[in-house]
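>> received
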Amino acid sequence: MMTSLRTPSRTAVERWAWAAVVANTVIVLTGGLVRLTGSGLGCPTWPRCTDDSFVPHRALGVHGVIEFGNRMLTYVLIAVVIATLVAVWRWSGTTRELRRLALLIALGVPFQGVIGGITVLTDLNPWIVSLHLILSMLLVSASVLLVLRVRGFAHASWPALTRQLVIATYVVLWAVVYLGTVVTGSGPHAGDVSAPRNGLDPHVMSHVHAVSVYVLVALTIACCLRLRGTPAAAAAVVLLVAELAQGTIGFVQYFTDLPIALVAVHLVGASVLVAAGTWLLVVIVSDPSRRDTPSTSHSSDASRSR
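>> returned
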């Protein structure tokens, strides 16, 4: 997928935006695998791998290779978001908002790399690790927003209650994601045998996290009912399906002592959850008077929302 010397088409720009979504999700997965394999300090310092070398040496073993590999993938992600930025800036249908959003994503990736370095320098402090994951999720969300803005969609005027319900759902979704990182920070997969934990009871925090999931599912069901028969119904249903799948994985991993494979799938599921929630939020909250792209149009179907 190479950016043409000519002005890129809408399809090409959208593909690059999707590439940013996928790349940011993949880095969430590989970063999780670093922690799950106990390789968080495989390269014990940053930005070098060791005090004397930028690359791992034999004494660091497989953990050094895994940690260093994740660091190298960050450069792949940087290449993707820079290519996305170039495509957005050169596209004839671009806007100032799109350029700013693409620039924000491009700048967010190296900033995220710095936070990753801080996690290493603080011996995998669980609160910094949580921040590291949340920032990746924010980049996933921003990339999904870019996809939607480039693609264009039918803007509509929604009732205030509908907008408030969707906003509340989105806020609770982020609370669920954050509480998930807190549970992780209290659990066994620390990234290294010597890494500190946050000192909270993992069983208690798991139940707190579960309660937040129940609230999220209830709010999303309310969104599905509120939006039934409208063009936005699909976004609400996708979010609900993602929540149910993610919740099922979460319960199974809890009762099976957190197997690595399931935890890894759960991490990817969190990215999917954020992406689906962003889709629903953008469709409902966007200003109906705006025109992002030539394909954007008003929709009167929203009037059927109760």
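>> The chain has two domains: 1-151, 153-306.
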